[in-house]
Amino acid sequence: MKKYELALVLSEKVEDDVRTATLERAKEYIARYGGTVTSVDERGKTKLAYPIDKMTEAYYYFVDFDAEPTAPAQIEEEVRIMDNVLRFLIVSKDEDEKNKEK
User: What's the CA gap between 54 and 37, in Å, rounded?
Assistant: First the structure.
């Protein structure tokens, strides 16, 4: 299994319970495709570099997980159509660690 990180940018206009449900749904998608969530880093409400859908702030979450190499593409398909997700990105943390060693 490889290590990955899912970065989620969620709308500032939703309630706390809706944000929590959205994050839990993303974690369920990771589990559905054979992944294991290792940690969740909630960065809170942060100013965006540029407006997205007329919003200047959003909530940031970083979910670290282990999964097979085929899982990120499947997870992206699910996250792409989720409500309240403004932006998302999945990166391989294994590659990040290799780059740090160089």
Answer: 32
